[in-house]
UniProtKB/TrEMBL annotation, chains A, B, C, D:
It holds the Pfam family M20_dimer. The Mn(2+) ion enhances activity. The keyword Membrane does not apply. Residues 222-314 form the Peptidase M20 dimerisation domain. Its cofactor is Mn(2+). InterPro entries: Amidohydrolase, Bact_exopeptidase_dim_dom, Peptidase_M20, Peptidase_M20/M20A_hydrolases, Peptidase_M20_dimer. The lineage of its organism: Bacteria, Pseudomonadati, Pseudomonadota, Betaproteobacteria, Burkholderiales. NCBIfam families: amidohydrolases (TIGR01891). This is Amidohydrolase. Gene3D superfamilies: Zn peptidases (3.40.630.10). One of its GO terms (biological process) is folic acid catabolic process. One of its GO terms (cellular component) is cytoplasm.
Length: 422, 422, 422, 422
């Protein structure tokens, strides 16, 4: 079984056990179990996650995920090693001087129930999600599989390589929650080159896009309000209406000033407020996100959101809390490294067409890792590896053409040969 | 065991099996099983409920309630007889000319988990609620028990009575949902006198209040909005934002015009909106109530609410639905009948003090039954029978002094002697 | 010419020169010119107005009013004596021991253009307003005229009186602006009895109402917001939108919590915002009033309004200013003094009917003077002296039956005889 | 005096008599008086303005403007000929076959008071605005002057030209109000080439920009609401609150959905609402504009605005009116004609630099004329002729380098030679 066949195999195995962000215990176990025998040095648990920088992680959800992992036979010692924090960083030192190159693979899934359509490949071939309400409908199973396959290739070719190589298996990319915490671990602070890629997106099988555009900065915020209950007829003056406050906040948020320098967006996606019909509502919570074409714009939106919540809570005399539960920055590819990926891609057999620019319209917390690397002088590049898909990302009918795995494997290893080859 | 002892017994039995409105299958079964052997003619199911006038009833909840009733041993034949509609009207014809007098007892409970404090009487005496999250914390167990006790007294004294007597066991008083449907059955259209009472409220043991004030008209509305999903950055123009619409509706509702002729209130108690953070929200629902000192004021508030929802849905291009899920009218006691209750009360041994007016600050769908009776020329009276209580109504520590049952029994039977006595 | 004929004469003369609050220079001059020759000790200008407590007074308007007064021939020395502050307090000391009784008459007019209907008495009899856009359509011309007539009566009967008598000619009652400043002068701090009355209102000729109801506490607020301009397309991020902030404030104000203890109202009557279509709006101003059945309720509304403005200004990052431009309190009549007015009224020939209670639905800053008097132990009473009217108060067709002047004169002098008679 | 000297002269004369849109009676008279003697065929008044398509024109303002024009000595016969509609289209037929070429010059000014700084050229040279509150601070005086100078050149060179030439002197460009009405006159329906230009903008003296970017589509809307008055305490139920409705409309407008395909903006620049503090507000008016990168986006914003007003007026039960008072479309230059302008410009002595693309960030109703021409198969081009400026456009210190007039004259005549030369 060659590397690509192995990647397909691994992708299908991972597809069966999709796990939502911060709950990837089975997945992380599988990564460890693959890498450790190969001789990779592993950073696990808090070694690779800075707790203070963790966003959008619920202890209750983590416990449930651990329980499920244990019930599915994951080794208890492995779970303990993870210390409640999923993801893993693997390092290999050739012992020879040379650059530090890092490859990043995200590992989590999406909260979608996989389709039961018979013609859906995972159903045809028997690798449908075995976790209810969870599905790899964003292709991260493919990313992880490629990472593991590349890991083996590296060990098989270690005598042909210089410097050091790091493989970043990042948790909780959905909701852009995990990147910041892994970046804050410091494990990337010695990296010279950081590469990452996404499968499919707007590119077809055989296409590679070097400068994906429209990758927006974003911040995800949860707002919680707490007022005071009262009987709305007998003593409304004793109440502090969290629901009314939340509604005004929403109106203000949607009408916030935009920025003249580029696209800025806001969405309030969820609101829950109140206890029952005949009590002045005490609790309200809203989930929102802002996005911006640049960090400046995104920050401008975040600042406004914070000010709106603070001021309006004061107007209604309710307590408030704003929690940042996700964050991604600008995608700034280094031209030199981008050129290298372009050159490598052009020689990859399965790559038919290299596209310079293509608009995606999404956010990626690869940017959080990349910002850390750039901050210490490293170069970063994030590209898209085309793969035909059966439905849009995050849809329950989503599947991608596994030929993309070959393209990915070839580009990553090709780059390693160029960057770390003897 | 005398009548009052029996009422206490029944009350405690009923207290153990509290059922929320439209789900009172155990309770209705108990009523039927008590009355039928005594010779009462019973109207059950759709005989006593007009389906078109039913408010705030969910088929799913009804099915669950039926299943629980069956699992608790309620006779399947009885359940079938109820046709999915709880409550019951019992009629006795003396065969002699005379007025038709109706007594109304409400039978449902409140969605509150009963306290586990040891000094709480139901805990001490072992009649705590056996239904999780449900509790007779409004005293309707007492009302029903008195009704059943009075039913027996009537049969025991049937030779001393003239005319006809109807006992109205009304479902779903909480949320003022059941009165209108029972009224619309037409079973009260021949009633000359309608009496109803509430235990405790603002009155202490030994007190009776003849003209409870501050009983407000009210209408409960559920609003449901449906927009269209869209990616908030890629194609926000395709979305129709139900959450934003709901927030504007709430702001408009709270700011609606009040009425110069008296008190008008509005509360939006609950809101749920949106699906996830990064999709333009598709669904929103809000639960609200308006109240008015008079029907004119209440109607004015309802009209505004409907107009606000309709117009604002148009402004946001979302679909809307307004459902009336509860309604109660003005409490208009007939002076002549009120005088009679007063005279009777003054002679009741356990009654220490008859109070003419006392403000309650609540709503009662007795008023829906009363309106029907008044419409055909009958007279109606709703009074309060005092009973010390351990906590406010609807609190989980609520309990009432069972001496109030005696007062209630004596007044109801006293009135029957006056109105239907030979 | 008897006192009442003189009052009619004076009323018509005053009707020709109506002046809006804080601009009553002609009116004040007329009062001074009437009283001084009679021997009254006069407090003028800052002697009777505490500058810090002045509300709703614009220096620009005052200057224009002074210019007009001068142009109409008012003595320049008199104007200088007024120091820019209209109104006047007159005091007479009998030299004999006895109580201090104060009578209050308000002197300002309404900003309404008087009708030109031919059958309107002021047109028929030639005493139509000579001041464009200003009219005594609230009857204060009558109040002032009665005050002057009573002043003469007092001097004519000074040997029959004991104690001291004060006549309070109050400016700026409309908008309830002047009472507080005159009260704060301290001139009422020795008053034992304070009487005031309003002509017409809901009472017909011959009626007197002793306890006018529905006289609400009120506070008038002006809100001014200041943001920052910006081009709405090129650089909206530089703007701070005062118009948007004002709109949110209005929504919040109208939806503020009401009070369970009684009527509380809010009205935002005026808003002006923005500079031109294509600039982010910099300025916004709104004029609002709250009212409350009690001081507690009114204060609750005011507190909310202040909090709403403060918090929302913060949310929008705009500067704000809230100015109190008017204030009136609860009308609390002293039963003993009310009884005296009632007894006196019953003997007045032109009084056909004494009414105890009647709802007015207005506000009166007599209450500000009364609060000061009550604070030092004095007793106060405000009553209504009926007079048929041709249109509602503040309408341009308003006129009142001058027979009310006789009733008023007789009641005031009758009370003086009772309170200060030898 | 050569053509350019004449243009400078004319520009200064026009600068002294700036007139706001639809009030350019002096200006139009001056144009007529210049062109008619030269032999141009003139279309005046309704000949060149389609009344139904007129936007943002107030009859009252027009009358005042006419009165001023008459008072300043404009010939009454000329005024009558204008029929209340300013602007003018001049046509010259060479009698020889050839294309129809139209040049467009806008003639109105801005509502700004000209600076009194001594170093401001119009002050130094004595051609400061003589109309209070009005100023040519957008350079349209220069446009008109160039047009008149070109008109003379055409007549001086008529034997060297073929086809027909039309000069479009357009009123009311500010607020993008006049273009649509002049287009609807049909006078451009036979035009093969339409050229227009703006002085200064972001380009310096000597620069010419062929494809100005960021010229946004826009629609200007006036919204008027009418409610019903009521006393806010006595009978609020009778009121219909136009102010409250306007505030909700503003919140909804600012929060309207944006478009995924490009920039869309909204600004509510002005709001006036209410009559006085203590009456439920009856009237409210707001002035707003939307802009869009494309017509699709602009239309999407306009549709939302209309829907928001309609729905919210319904919610508040107030009457509404939405008037379109200005409109401009996408700037779509024809590449062939643009190339011609580019070539001509490159040969113009005063032109140092031809710029292909430069972002302006404004709107232009040249686009309305251009759309008409394109609709019948004509080609259009709008370019920018650089000129140093002393302040931003629409500022009171604005002035432009008159050397730009030479560049403009040379380009326009150069293009005519190319398009209509023998």
């Amino acid at each position: 079984m060659n590397y690509v066949e192995k990647a397909v195999c691994l992708r299908r195995a991972l597809h069966k056990i999709p796990e939502l962000g911060w709950g990837e215990f089975c997945t992380t176990a599988k990564i460890i179990e693959n890498l450790e025998p190969l001789g990779w040095k592993l950073y696990v648990g808090r070694q690779q996650i800075s707790e203070e920088a963790v966003m959008g992680r619920s202890e209750e959800f983590v416990q449930k995920s651990i329980e499920r992992a244990l019930s599915e036979g994951v080794d208890k010692a492995l779970i303990e090693r993870m210390e409640g924090y999923t993801g893993c960083v693997a390092e290999f030192d050739t012992g020879r001087p040379g650059p530090v190159t890092a490859l990043r693979f995200d590992i989590d899934c999406v909260g979608v129930e996989e389709t039961d359509r018979k013609d859906h490949l995972p159903n045809l071939e028997g690798f449908r999600s075995q976790h209810e309400g969870a599905m790899h409908s964003c292709g991260h199973d493919g990313h992880t599989a490629v990472g593991l396959s590349v890991a083996q290739w590296i060990m098989d070719h270690k005598d042909e390589l210089n410097g050091r190589i790091k493989l970043i298996f990042q948790p909780a990319e959905e909701g852009v929650r995990g990147g910041a915490a892994q970046a804050a671990s410091g494990l990337l602070d010695d990296v010279n080159y950081l590469l990452g890629a996404h499968l499919a997106m707007m590119c077809k099988t055989g296409e590679v896009c070097i400068y994906p555009g429209g990758v927006l900065c974003t911040t995800k915020l949860d707002v919680r309000l707490k007022g005071k209950p009262a009987h709305p007829t007998m003593s409304p003056q004793l109440g502090r209406n969290a629901l009314a406050c939340a509604c005004t906040i929403v109106s203000e948020l949607l009408g916030m000033a935009r920025h003249g320098n580029g696209l800025g967006c806001i969405n309030v996606g969820l609101m829950q407020a109140g206890e029952c019909r005949n009590v002045i509502p005490v609790h309200a919570s809203i989930q929102l996100e802002v996005r911006g074409e640049t960090a400046e714009i995104n920050d401008f939106m975040v600042d406004q959101a914070n000010r709106i919540v603070k001021g309006t809570a004061l107007a209604y005399d309710v307590e408030y809390e704003v929690e940042k539960v996700g964050e991604a920055g600008e995608l700034l590819n280094d031209p030199e490294l981008a050129d290298l990926v372009k050159e490598v891609s052009e020689k990859v057999p399965s790559c038919r067409k290299v596209i310079d620019h293509k608009k995606l319209g999404c956010s990626e917390d690869f940017t959080m890792l990349a910002a850390r690397v750039r901050a210490v002088g490293g170069k970063t590049e994030f590209f898209v590896i085309g793969a035909d898909r059966t439905a849009a990302h995050h849809q329950r009918e989503f599947d991608f053409d596994e030929k993309g795995l070959e393209t990915a494997f070839d580009i990553f290893t090709g780059c390693l040969r160029r960057l770390n080859g003897k």
